[in-house]
Amino acid sequence: MKRAHRPVVGKSAPCRGKRRYHSQGDALEAAMLAGVERRRRAYVCPWCGLWHLTTIRDG
Ligand SMILES: [Zn+2]
User: Fold this and answer.
1) What ranges do the domains of the chain cover?
2) I need a labelling partner for 16 at 20 to 30 A (CA). Which of 3, 33, 49, 51 fits?
């Protein structure tokens, strides 16, 4: 098995499996590329300090 070079974030961070972005712009750009920017919101994660996208629920 090959080890990937990943930044070490808190081992017990609940966001471990989530995609991280270095800035709000990065997060929103990724959402835009996926065509889902209207249904996603970027937020700073309190655990890893980076950005994640969350789904906006309407209704
Ligand atoms: Zn996080």
Assistant:
1) 24-55
2) 33
